[in-house]
Structure formats: C-alpha cells, structure tokens
C-alpha cells in the first residue's frame, strides 16, 4: 500500500499516514517536511542547554518494537503497546498501524495484509546533538537530545528524529536510512561501501579459546587441530592479549582489585614479549615472522588483530615514551543519565574511577597510522576495533560526544584505507547512534553482545538480539553475529543462525575441541562459506512479538540467496530473560511448554519474486534441513513447525519454475549445508521440442545436491560425466552427489 500523507501536527495530535500517533503534542514540538513524505521531528526550548528532554505526546494502544541500549555498548529489542514501555536510550521505534483504524490494536491478524502499514521513528544526530527516545509512566513519548559537553549548548533541535511510514517495514528502513544518508551526509548506506573479503571465508577467533593468555603456541595448536579435522580456517582474529600493556593499579604480589583490569593501558604499538624471540616458547622472532609462518603452513588468507578504539581498555599510558608523541592525558568518563538509566556496566564504572588515557584528537590519525602501518608491515590484513562507545563519555572539552566520536571514526577509517586493502575493519561495542551515523566507510560491525559459552541463559538472547538489531544496523553495515563454539550444547542453534545471518562465520573453539559435523554444515572444503544475500532479520509476523519471554512465539529469520529464499525457525523461549533494569525475572522454563508450534510460509521471505524469474508459478518447494522433508506450497499457504526449547529448523524455499507443459523444477542446492541455496548461482533451461528439455544449474561446492522435479529425468551429468541420481516420485525430490573440487560447475539435467 502507498502512504501519501506526510507527518504533521494537527489540533495537538501528531499525524502520520493520516492516523493519530501521539495526542497532547506540546506547542514547542516542530515537524519539518522532508522528501518522499517523510519529516523531521524536533522541538524548541526557552533556554539553551547541553541536554534537553522534550515531550512529543502520549502514545497508547499500539504495537511497537524498539531497539534500545540496555548498557553502554549494546542494543536489544523490546516490544510493547504504550509509551510507558519504551526504555531510555531507544534508538529505533517501529509502530504497526492499520489503514482502516487508528494505531493497530491488540488483536493483530496477518501483518502481510494490504491494510497494514508501519511508522518508523529514527532518532538521529542533529549537529552536535545526539538523540534518543524514551517513555514515561504517563505513556508520554519523549526525545532526549544531548551533546555530552556542558559548553556545547543550543535551545532547539529541529532535525532530531526522522519519521517515515510505508507498507513494507524492510523497504521503509532502507528508504529512511537513504534519506538520512543524503540529508545528513555523515554516514553511508551499506550499498555504497566496500565489503571486506573475510565475510566469505571460515574464521577462527582466539578470544574464547585463550582469552588474554593467547600465545603463538596456542594459535598454532588450534590451527593444527582444525587442519587435522579437515576444516582449516582461512581467516584468523588474534584478539586481546597480544599488545604491550601496563596496569598501574595492580601491585606485584597482591591480588587483582576487581575493576582495575579495565584500567590497563597501552604502552607500545608493537607486540608483547609472547610474540617475540624472548617470549615463553621462543618459536618466533617477532609478529611478522609468526604471521608469515602460520599463513604459509596453514593456508590462512587473512589475519586480523584486535585493539580498542583508544588503544586499549584504559587507553594509552601517558608516561610511555612511545605514546607521548600523541599528547595523551587521563580523562575520567562521564556517563549520561541514559547510560545509568538502564544497566550499569562494570567496565565503564571502573573507567570512571581510574580514567582513560585518551589521545589528543589532533593526533589520533597519527596513532592509528603508526599502529596500522606497523601491523600491515608485519603481514596483518585488518583489525577488529573494540570498546568504541567509550568515546561518548569522554566528550567534555572536546566539542561533545558526537564531535569526538566522528573525529576518531574518520581517522580510523582513513588509516584503514591507507594501510590495509579491502576495507578490512570489524567495529565492535559500537551500538550508539554517534557511531552508527558517523560510519562513512566502516562496513562490518558486531550485531549483539558477545557469545558467552559459559552462560546458558544468554544463548537465545544472543540470536534474537542479533536478528532484531540487524533491522537497523544492516542498512549501514554487514552485521557480525560474533563467534560461537562448534562443540557446545547450543552449537547447532548458533551455527544455523550464522548460516542465515548473511554474516561472517567464525568460531572460538579451544584447540582440539571441535564438532566437525557442525562446521561442515557451514564451511565448504576450500574454506569458503555460503553467505546469504542480506542481513538475517525477523520475518514480518515476528516483528512485534517477544521470541524470548512471551512463552508462545517462535523466532523466524528470513534471507535470500541468488535463486531461492531461506527461513530459520528458532525456539528461544524458556531459556533466558532480557536484561532489563528492575525487570521481574521469569524462572527459566517455568511456564513455557516443552514444545511450541508455529508456521512457515513462502510469504515469510521478502522479495522472493525478485529471485524467482519469469517462469515462476507462484508455488514453492520447501526443503527442511533437519527432517529432510519436502513440501510443495502455494505462495500464501503455510507449513506447521513444532520445536522444543533451543531447537531450530531451516527451510529452503525455492520458487517452482515451469519450463514446459510437463516440467516444473526448483533447485535447493547442497542439502547437507545449513544454507543449501547459497550454493546456487544460475538456473537455465533449453527446450528442444518435441524430444524434451535440458535444465542447467551452476553450483558452487561439493556434496549432496537436491532439487524438486515434477518428473524423473533421463540423465544427470556434469563436466560431460554421467552421475547416478535418486528420484522420489512421491514428493519429487531429486538428489545426486557432486564429487571433487569446490569450484563453480554446471550441472545438466536431461528430460
């Protein structure tokens, strides 16, 4: 459906798409029309300040989903029905509305019906001000604008929130971000960025394997165990633990005081003694020697190194001879009311006490350039840059949080472009809008809080938050769903999610502790992965449901490949609680049924028609990964799925093409891979009347290939060699084995 009425304030009501969104709108609220029927929302004050909280109006009786920062570093989703349920630090608000009524009521029916539309509020950056949304106990929706520097003040913020509406929530988000990209000019949409190559290769990160105790020997042991299992990584992240640091607050011979670990500061840009000839195992002379050796022996294509955006957690050590050229000084973070209004974080609280050694913004490019040029000369291909949101707490005296973040971000991106090829950067702990809307070149950022293998109640939260956060983040970066453990009680759950995420696939296994059955569902023998086309996001009918705590909803995540769609269904209920301040903790599994049921439909895959081609009948063939079942469904029909807690199923949804009067065909791809359709490149058919036709499919990889065929073929061959095939006349499943190399090949199926 098309929404034509631009947002406006009429008779004290905020109107969007001809519907009342907020009532009781104060007179100081200003709506300024923007292009394509969107508008900016702002407000004025009688006095200048560095922080304003403006009431927009009363928001009641609606279905909403918001993304908010539950702690300084990370966002999670929340769903609700009124303004009082919108937390502080909300950075996106999506409302579900109906054409024939006011905002959508509680009894929601099929959200894909034509009279449903969506209203998006995106709090953004307005000059030196950064905006967030929040609710009050009186159901008022408020916007908070702040600079983080008492000397940077204004009495108005007129472009604080973008409001837009539309009939497709995914197109709405994309179009809104593109409007902001053009209007603000401070960031770039993901379509206009260079995507780094590590996304298409299997990786290993050292963090959960070793934590700070990473060493050359440990890394070699891990790479060797992957190699022996037949699944060697092609990219490696050497995480925290390689740098030369000092903790001024740890006294020799005394136990560590909790919190002081975050005050550790960087002393040198070069590697610590573990990676030098003087190190504990003496197996390498320096970082360059080590990286060259592991690339040659283990076939690594890419090696990334970790560092914090301020050097290390506690910044750099001002007394260091190496660091003094960057004019560092100790600054104590100042947390905003929003930071402390949700969950406090021990790292930030500790840094408030012990301070951060911050580099002069005038010198920050020199620091990054020196660090990255040294790493590049040592054979390093890119970096993972962590702790990014700390900058918002350090803005006093530097022009505010937005200004400081932007200066650091632009310097970082300039250094990456100068020292590494292919834009090889992973951003992390960067879920504030200061960073999001200052991202000009950064193309990859973490989608959620860390995977935590020792926290059983965090597993479902990780998957759900990554999927929901990708709604916003996925328009600006490729969301990174973090590492996981291949040998873990939730390995299948996490592995399936990574296959659907459109993200990098990497693990943090300890050496010798792997499940190669899981890994080989994700990784081809050449080390490449079958990455889907878009960020994995919740299906339209899941957007306003809580997949973690409502006790009844399954989480469905959709994506597209070149010729088909894919939907993963996850039972995230009864295994964790959202980390909300002062929230009632629901006992795990106490009131959740052992098995939950839902449905899957071809309608769950957005834009399926764009990959279906001209020969699509409207019907789809659906292959279930775990059960191995094949179903044929019309576009609006659905298939029931039932799952126990922490279980999942993946459905490849392949449009059925009609190639002649007798033949209907739908390829699935490599059936033993989670994202089987990711192996498919092209599909064509040559009809030779009256004798028959030949279907040609280009496939990447090897293994068991499958397709739906309405009739049995006469032969199947590739590279001019006949292949034995199996055909099940009951459901139309055609299968055969692709042997040999993983290179792209053409399969020909004769009828």
Describe the structure.
The chain has 751 residues and is α+β, with helices and mostly antiparallel strands. 17% of the residues lie in helices and 33% in strands. The protein contains 13 helices and 43 strands. The strands form 10 sheets. Strands 27, 28, 29, 31, 32, 34, 35, 38, 41 and 42 form a 10-stranded antiparallel beta sheet that branches. Strands 4-5-14-10-9-7-8 form a 7-stranded antiparallel beta sheet. Strand 22, helix 8 and strand 23 form a beta-alpha-beta unit. The longest helix is centred in the middle third of the chain and has 19 residues, at 401-419. The radius of gyration is 27 Å and the shape is globular. The two termini are 42 Å apart. Residues 104-109 have low confidence and may be disordered.
Give a quick rundown of the structure.
By secondary structure, the protein is α+β, with helices and mostly antiparallel strands. It has 13 helices and 43 strands.
Distance between the termini: 42 Å
Nearest-integer average pLDDT: 94
Largest sheet: 10 strands, antiparallel
Question: How much helicity do the residues have?
Answer: 10-25%
The helix tally amounts to 13
Tell me the strand percentage band: 25-35%
Structural class comes to alpha+beta
Radius of gyration: 27 Å
């Amino acid at each position: 459906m098309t929404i034509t009425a631009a947002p406006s304030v009429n008779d004290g009501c905020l109107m969007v798409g001809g519907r009342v969104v907020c009532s009781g709108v104060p007179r100081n609220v200003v709506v300024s029309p923007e292009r394509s029927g969107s508008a900016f929302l702002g407000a004025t004050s009688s006095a200048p300040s560095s922080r304003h909280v403006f009431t927009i109006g009363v928001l009641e009786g609606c279905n909403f989903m918001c993304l908010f920062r539950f702690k300084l570093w990370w966002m999670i989703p929340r769903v609700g029905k009124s303004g009082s349920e919108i937390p502080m630090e909300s950075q996106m608000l999506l409302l579900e509305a109906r054409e024939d009524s006011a905002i959508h009521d509680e009894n929601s029916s099929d959200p894909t019906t034509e009279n449903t539309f969506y209203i998006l509020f995106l709090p953004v950056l307005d000059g030196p001000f950064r905006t967030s949304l929040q609710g009050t106990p009186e159901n008022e929706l408020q916007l908070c604008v702040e600079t983080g520097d008492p000397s940077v003040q204004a009495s108005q913020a007129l472009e604080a929130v973008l409001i837009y509406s539309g009939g497709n929530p995914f197109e709405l988000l994309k179009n809104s971000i593109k409007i902001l990209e053009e209007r603000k000019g401070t960031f770039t949409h993901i379509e206009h960025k260079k995507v780094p190559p590590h996304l298409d290769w299997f990786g290993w990160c050292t963090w959960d394997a070793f934590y700070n105790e990473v060493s050359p020997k440990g890394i070699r042991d891990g790479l060797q165990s992957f190699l022996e299992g037949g699944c060697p990584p092609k990219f490696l992240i050497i995480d925290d633990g390689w740098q030369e640091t000092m903790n001024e607050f740890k006294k020799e011979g005394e136990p560590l005081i909790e919190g002081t670990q975050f005050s550790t500061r960087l002393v040198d840009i070069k590697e610590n003694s573990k990676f030098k000839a003087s190190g504990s195992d003496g197996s390498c002379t320096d970082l360059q020697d080590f990286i060259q050796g592991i690339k040659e022996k283990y076939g690594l294509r890419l090696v990334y190194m970790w560092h914090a955006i301020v050097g290390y957690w506690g910044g750099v050590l001002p007394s260091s001879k190496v660091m003094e050229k960057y004019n560092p000084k100790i600054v104590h973070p100042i947390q905003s009311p929003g930071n402390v209004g949700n969950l406090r974080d021990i790292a930030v609280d500790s840094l408030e006490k012990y301070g951060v050694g911050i580099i002069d913004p005038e010198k920050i490019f020199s620091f990054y350039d020196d660090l990255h040029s040294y790493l590049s000369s040592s054979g390093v291909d890119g970096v993972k840059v962590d702790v990014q949101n700390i900058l918002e707490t350090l803005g006093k005296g530097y022009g505010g949080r937005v200004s400081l973040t932007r200066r650091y971000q632009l310097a970082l991106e300039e250094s990456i472009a100068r020292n590494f090829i292919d834009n090889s950067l992973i951003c992390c702990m960067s879920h504030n809008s200061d960073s999001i809307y200052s991202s000009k070149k950064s193309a990859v950022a973490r989608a959620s809080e860390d995977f935590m293998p020792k926290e059983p109640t965090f597993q479902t939260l990780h998957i759900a938050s990554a999927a929901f956060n990708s709604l916003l983040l996925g328009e600006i970066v490729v969301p990174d769903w973090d590492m996981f453990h291949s040998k873990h009680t939730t390995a299948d759950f996490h592995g399936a999610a990574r296959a659907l995420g459109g993200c990098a696939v990497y693990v943090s296994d300890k050496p010798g502790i792997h499940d190669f059955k899981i890994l080989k569902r994700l990784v081809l023998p050449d080390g490449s992965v079958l990455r889907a086309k878009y960020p994995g996001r919740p299906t339209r009918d899941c957007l306003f449901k809580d997949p973690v705590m409502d006790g009844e909803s399954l989480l469905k995540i959709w994506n597209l490949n070149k010729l088909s769609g894919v939907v993963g269904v996850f039972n995230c209920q009864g295994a964790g609680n959202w980390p909300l301040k002062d929230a009632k903790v629901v006992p795990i599994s106490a009131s959740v049924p052992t098995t939950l049921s839902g449905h899957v439909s071809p309608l769950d895959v957005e834009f399926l028609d764009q990959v279906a081609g001209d020969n699509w009948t409207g019907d789809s063939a659906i292959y279930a990964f775990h059960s191995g079942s094949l179903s044929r469904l019309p576009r609006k029909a659905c298939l029931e799925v039932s799952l126990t807690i922490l279980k999942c199923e993946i459905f490849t949804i392949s449009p059925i093409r009609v190639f002649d009067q007798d033949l209907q065909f739908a390829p699935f791809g490599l059936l033993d891979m989670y994202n089987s359709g990711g192996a498919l490149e092209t599909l064509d058919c040559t009809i030779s009347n009256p004798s028959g036709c030949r279907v040609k499919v280009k496939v990447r990889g090897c293994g068991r290939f499958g397709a739906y065929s309405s009739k049995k073929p006469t032969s199947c061959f590739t590279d001019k060699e006949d292949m034995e095939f199996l055909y099940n006349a009951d459901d139309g499943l055609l299968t055969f084995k692709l042997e040999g190399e993983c290179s792209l090949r053409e399969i020909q199926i004769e009828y």
